[in-house]
């Protein structure tokens, strides 16, 4: 290689003269001379690159003072850019001029000037360049035929370079320099939405070097994520996963975008929430524990900020269901233990909750619910598993799998279970509605709710139902001092379950809402809740 670079100074002057001649004339004779010398000029560029890559930008300018002029003239010659690998080699020669940490204004200007040339090469060529028109005319191609082919070849060349980490034919032992990857990602910022550049964008996102710090330009990641959210780019899920793993703000913005879609939509049915969720790619990406933990933390904050809003709870449950489906589909054999996803939860409890309630025979529902209740109670009240977090962590885990609470409410209303079973189910529901309540407060809630439950179970056997019957049943035990919030919420859940499962319950729901203004002070709170929440809940479950 040293021998190859010995004659560079003399060759340098020869090619500088040739480029000047080619740049000043556009005659047929000039074009023929250019095409005649293309193989030799490409070999010169190759030798120049081998010399430049071993020097920093300061040493390059000292040894080759006019290298910038030569490369600039080359960038504007369409014959050279279209020939074989010349364009690719030219790009890496330019990258050698970029100073990673410019120390003065001169080096900064050189960086800016070099990036401008790279941007010119990588962007769409101007159709009014006289030389290009002549070139395509000689070849018999129209610009509409020539430019797409040239752009496609350039993109494929860069993609190959990123994936193979070497230039075809040389530099086989040298990985692509991080500065070059970073420069390329910066140049691509305004180009990410162009379909022809999608392979290059994907190759950049999936590029893996051995650098301790991220090499991709942050604005590049922002641009790609914005294009993905606005459906202006089509990338495989693996590339989006790499984007979110490399750039946390992109993942956070995706979650915020999902929340915005849910908030802006007037009526969010469960099917629509599921479509939003799967379309976001979040459940599939969450199979990677790092993605799951970030998404789960954002759900946690949303739940706390909205005081457990129904829409947030429903979204968490839909996400969890889609996540579990994706996990089962992707991992025939789990790559990560479930504790990696739920580090603050009892592993045995997680395994039980991961079962889909409907996969359990109906005759075993009580047994499964009782087992879950006992495990949660042991963690929450007995405090024998302090390493699994406090009551909130157990509750947050439980609300991910909302089907179990729905099953418990249904069982309390529709089954004739033995005495101890309803106690376990009542505790489970009381905990789901009031995770911060103490042992005594939760016990008192269970006493009050049990009285309401007796009235509701009687109504289920009643031949005719009315809104006032429901009001009376829901008000049982509510006279006198106001009920604690957890008790009120549990009664509401039972009322909801009653209206969902009782014959004619849907009709009563509408009747109750229309009678809201006519109720007394005690019932106004419950009916007000039905107006705000029950109707939305019914929409979530039954509207299509």
TrEMBL record:
InterPro entries: FANCC. One of its GO terms (cellular component) is Fanconi anaemia nuclear complex. It is found in: Nucleus. GO terms for biological process: cellular response to oxidative stress; interstrand cross-link repair; nucleotide-excision repair. Keywords: Cytoplasm, DNA damage, DNA repair, Nucleus. DNA repair protein that may operate in a postreplication repair or a cell cycle checkpoint function. May be implicated in interstrand DNA cross-link repair and in the maintenance of normal chromosome stability. Upon IFNG induction, may facilitate STAT1 activation by recruiting STAT1 to IFNGR1. Belongs to the multisubunit FA complex composed of FANCA, FANCB, FANCC, FANCE, FANCF, FANCG, FANCL/PHF9 and FANCM. This complex may also include HSP70. This is Fanconi anemia group C protein homolog. It comes from Delphinapterus leucas. The gene is FANCC.
